[in-house]
Design a protein that fits this description.
The complex is a heterodimer.
Chain A (H helix, E strand, L loop, with lengths): L3 E4 L2 E4 L4 E8 L5 E7 L6 E7 L2 E5 L6 E7 L2 E7 L7 E8 L9 E2 L3 E5 L1
Parallel strand pairs in A: 2-11
Antiparallel strand pairs in A: 1-3, 3-8, 4-5, 4-9, 5-6, 7-8, 9-10, 9-11
Chain B lengths: L3 E2 L5 E4 L4 E7 L6 E7 L6 E6 L3 E5 L2 E6 L4 E6 L8 E8 L5 E3 L3 E6 L1
Parallel strand pairs in B: 2-11
Antiparallel strand pairs in B: 1-3, 3-8, 4-5, 4-9, 6-7, 7-8, 9-10, 9-11
Classes of the chains: A mainly beta, B mainly beta.
Chain lengths: 114, 110
């Protein structure tokens, strides 16, 4: 059983819809991350939060809007997405944002944009 | 030049053999290195991490790091069919910026 839980596991939405992805970690970690994984491409870091503060925004389009209300929960709000945004979205957490801390991943949300 | 490079494979080995997975990286300042295993349709699972030059062993897995050559590898001894997965190399280039390779697909045949 993973210590990082993501919901929903699958999501199909139209380009004009608004939806949110949810991530919850039960590991007592202080840092949380959103990644995008597309076919044939490496995982791409999208956002980093440390103690509920955003510390990294990796040139992500504004149609993706993260929210971190506390150190255990992370959301990714989606609106007006494009077909190329179809991918697996992974949440991860680590103890802190120190460089030697391993990250632990949730099972991901498979997103399909119609 | 890609920041983290891996051969996409597939790497095919017979059951019981040693599987050797390789990764090179471009940022000389990188401090920590991670190997993740990802089964199809599943999330990446941490297998090993290594910070210092040399070898680090954990069960059937050995991670090897050579910072001078900017090279990190993962050896899997006594490979099992259940080891068949994609192995992702990840390099921390500073302040938790984890850069991943595209992964090497490993196939272990019974």
């Amino acid at each position: 059983e993973t210590g990082v839980t993501q919901t929903p596991r699958h999501l199909v939405m139209g380009m004009t819809n608004k939806k949110s992805l949810k991530c919850e970690q039960h590991l007592g970690h202080n840092a949380m991350y959103w990644y995008k994984q597309s076919a044939k491409k490496p995982l791409e870091l999208m956002f980093v939060y440390s103690l509920e503060e955003r510390v990294e925004n990796n040139s992500v389009p504004s149609r993706f809007s993260p929210e971190c209300p506390n150190s255990s929960h992370l959301f990714l709000h989606l609106h007006t997405l494009q077909p190329e945004d179809s991918a697996l979205y992974l949440c991860a957490s680590s103890q802190d944002v120190g460089s030697n801390q391993p990250q632990h991943f949730g099972d991901g949300t498979r997103l399909s944009i119609l | 030049q890609k920041e983290v490079e891996q051969n996409s494979g597939p790497l095919s080995v017979p059951e019981g053999a040693i599987a050797s997975l390789n990764c090179t990286y471009s940022d000389r300042g990188s401090q920590s290195f991670f190997w993740y295993r990802q089964y199809s349709g599943k999330s990446p699972e941490l297998i090993m991490f290594i910070y210092s030059n040399g070898d680090k062993e954990d069960g059937r897995f050995t991670a090897q790091l050579n910072k001078a050559s900017q090279y990190v590898s993962l050896l899997i001894r006594d490979s099992q069919p259940s080891d068949s997965a994609t192995y992702l190399c990840a390099v921390n280039t500073g302040f938790q910026k984890l850069v991943f390779g595209t992964g090497t697909r490993l196939l272990v045949s019974p």
